[in-house]
Amino acid sequence: MKKLEEYVRSIPDFPEEGIIFRDVTSVLQDADGLQLAIDTMQEKIKDLDFDVVAGPESRGFIFGTPIAYNNKKPFVLIRKAGKLPRETVSVSYDLEYGQATIEMHKDSIRPGQRVLIVDDLIATGGTTEAMIKLIESLGGVVAGVVVLMELAGLKGRERLKGYRLDSAICYPGK
């Protein structure tokens, strides 16, 4: 069987020169790659105690839902502003070029619930930091974060000091 890294297509000079884009779609489009990705991420958190899985749109939904299902836990959506129909809480955060806002339903996390955040990638850690703030604003406790890929050169792990972060694949560069 292939290693997980072999399913990730690396595209040089995208979206700009000097960047290597790690394409998650090549993992999703291969049944063995998808299964290996989910199994590897789940193995990383096998010792973690959590009550709820949360993930951001859209790739956090893809990886978080099967992990929630396999662990018999609920899955909570974290969405871009204006996409959820009921009362929400939101956090705005800075991007490289501008700002973004994410939201959760106000009743999606109860105080004291231990939350596992699942996503496809951590780079600078800005989105993950915003998700942590959102969960904690509802009284949730972030039990950990698990991602398929970590771009260690962008130092997202440093931004999340004090929180458990597991990655299935860790790339040293950007």
Indicate the topology.
Blueprint: E1 9-12, E2 20-23, H1 25-28, H2 31-44, E3 52-56, H3 59-70, E4 75-80, E5 88-95, E6 98-105, E7 114-122, H4 126-137, E8 141-151, H5 156-159, E9 165-171
Parallel strand pairs: 3-4, 3-7, 7-8, 8-9
Antiparallel strand pairs: 1-2, 4-6, 5-6
First-residue to last-residue Cα separation: 27 Å
What structural class do helix, strand and pairing data support?
alpha/beta
Number of DSSP-assigned strands? 9
Number of helices: 5
Roughly what is the average pLDDT, rounded to an integer?
95
Uncertain segments of ≥5 residues (pLDDT<50)? none
Please trace the helix and strand order, writing H or E for each element: EEHHEHEEEEHEHE
Taken together, the total number of domains comes to 1
Principal-axis shape equals globular
User: Strand content of the residues, in percent?
Assistant: 35-45%
Please identify, by name, the CATH architecture: 3-Layer(aba) Sandwich
Largest sheet strand order: 5-6-4-3-7-8-9
Helix content: 25-40%
Topology-level CATH name: Rossmann fold
CATH class: Alpha Beta
Largest sheet: 7 strands, mixed
Specify Rg, calculated over alpha carbons. Answer: 16 Å
Structure description:
The protein is globular, with a radius of gyration of 16 Å. The strands form two sheets. Strands 5-6-4-3-7-8-9 form a seven-stranded mixed beta sheet, with helices on both faces. Strands 1-2 form a two-stranded antiparallel sheet. The protein is α/β, with parallel strands linked by helices and 174 residues long. It is 26% helix and 36% strand. The longest helix is centred in the first third of the chain and has 14 residues, at 31-44.
